Fold this protein.
Amino acid sequence: MPEKKITETRRTFFNAHGLARLVDVSAKQPTMRMAIARGWVQMTETTLRLIENKEIKKGDVLAVAQVAAIMAAKRTSEIIPMCHQLLLSGVEISFRLDYEKSRVEIEAGARTSGQTGVEIEALTAVAIAGLTIYDMCKSADRSMIIGDVRLIMKSGGKSGMFARVGEEEWEK
């Protein structure tokens, strides 16, 4: 069967035969793009203190989770089938220990100059940071919950700016 030409107006994840394909973004102009995502891992207060004091047997939980999150953002296209491979210009991961809610809060920011956004890279970084925290702390607390992984803001591209209402800024 002859291959049909992909046009700018026909952006779909399926070709004319209903088969999956990677959307062609070659006609799009590169723009500066940024995304911030957040999530959390809830745990016992004892586990939270072990993390803070670097007393978890597997090592410095937040340092390892930070590296895992950055690695995950860089490899997002390998684990999310329809994501484009991106040249990331920056990825930042931050953590806050919230004793009132007994959890580690995670924030990931990703940047690129390209033809498609970095929302999935930021979300993937948060999710993998949460999974890494769980993995490193499971011997101390199997009741942990990973939750509320969400996009906080994105900028760039044709759709422009998105900012979730009600999210406060983090002090860096």
Observations:
- Confidence is low (pLDDT under 50) at residues 4-9.
